[in-house]
Amino acid sequence: MNGLPEAGRPVDELLGELARLREDDLPVRGGNVTAYVYDTGRPEVHEAAARAHLEMLEVNCLDPTAFPSIVALERQLVDAVAERLGGGTSSGIFTSGGTESIMLAVKAARDARAVDRPQVVAPSTAHPAFAKAVHYLGMELVSVAVDPVTFRVSPEAITAALTPNTVLVVVSAPSYAHGVIDPVAEVAAIAAEAGVPCHVDACVGGWVLPWLRENGRDVPPFDLSVDGVTSISCDLHKYGYAPKGASVVLFADEAMRRRAYFAAAGWPGYPVINTTVQSSRSGGPLGAAWATFQALGADGYRSLAAEAMRSAERLIAGVAEIPGLRVLGSPEAPLVAVTSDDPELSVFALADEARSRGWFFQVQLSHGHSPPNLHFTLTGVSAGRVEAMLATLNESAKAAREAGPPDVPAELTEALESLDLDAIDDAGFAGLLAAVGVELGGAEPEMAMVNAIMDGLPVETREALLVRFLSVLYSGRL
User: Fold this and answer.
1) What is the CA radius of gyration of the chain?
2) Most buried in the list 40, 92, 217, 426, measured by CB within 10 Å?
3) In sequence order, which ranges of 209-333 are alpha helices (DSSP H)?
4) What total of structural domains would you count in the chain?
5) Residue 448: count of CB within 10 angstroms of its CB
6) Which residue range is the domain that position 417 belongs to?
7) Is residue 442 part of a domain?
8) Residue 138 lies in a domain
9) Exposed (0-12), middle (13-18) or buried (19+): which is 111, by Cβ within 10 Å?
10) What is the pLDDT of residues 348-390, one digit of tens each?
11) 460 within a domain of the structure (yes/no)
12) Is residue 323 classed as helix, strand or coil in its secondary structure?
């Protein structure tokens, strides 16, 4: 059934249809999906979050004077994050996710320094949310190459990239792709000397690194306690295990936090003041994040962090025993990237083989010195699944090697590079996808050929094709 029904439908029928629609979705529990979802393995925590989300579902965060509960909940969450990451400050904002937290940090830095062409200097491993922020905010991203072995940015490279137009310097703790931490203290010192704010993107690691440190691991300083760090983002729906979308951005200076806000009173309606990019937004994610924090407590997070990191270390050790595979860099958080050194073993084919066995290993395309690889996010639930994960990785590697890598015709890559995408409508592009074997109608799509084709294209062509693919997907042409 499509569109709006003439008459309302029974609730049981609606819920039944939702369940059918979700049959082909990846599972959000159990540990077989190594990206996108974060599972504690503790059903009672997820139940508490779901009930709190429902309680706050219709509360509108647009006006905190109308709904004071959102102020109380946000203060508690921000204070809790600041206690571990704030370096003595609790000046922060609850947002819908890492991208919005980053957007606000970039906006605040732009508004703090008036230059004609504001620039953000960031490692090439920085999350694309920074590229999105500068695109939306009319700024420029200066991308700095990282070390080809460690995948960390060098302080010297950051220094060389600074210009009079630099308004923000970025480092990751850790980077999503490889799980390694940039030299935060060194880069922050360089930024401070230049009079430029420094943002630490700890969206993925901000709520696991402090607990690893409390568990006795050697975690380098990375938060607002570091001189020169002026803001930090930390997602609560990642290693905070809250439902999507929940994140916090902290500022060392409350004046910088105010620059992230937006106010408008120059119209005949109600005065508008927004702490986030969004205006009206449900209080559900806020309530769910608060409930998750309260249900787990510090001891729960310490335990989950230990379990996740032990799983990551077991995965790293296990990968070393699988012929042709190796780990990229030296992960300092439960994020592991696995590549192939065997020309006959394609990680793209391996991912498809794993999918056919009930596992989802996230594909990462080559970029710079980082070869194509598979990304693994290890969580609390992974402790009981890592041996099965390794067995699947081993079996899938053998099957992928036997099948061989996808055979991408050189003329196809050349044709895609020269294709005028603006001259093709969605129906035509859907036909093009079908011609190269893209079939996404089933529960286990085969993506090896598609990923191999994408991996051989320039970044600009990849991005253009991704936009067209998304347009076709939502137009219903596939």
Assistant:
1) 23
2) 92
3) 209-214, 254-260, 284-319
4) 1
5) 22
6) 410-475
7) yes
8) no
9) middle
10) 999 999 999 999 999 999 999 999 999 999 999 999 999 999 9
11) yes
12) coil
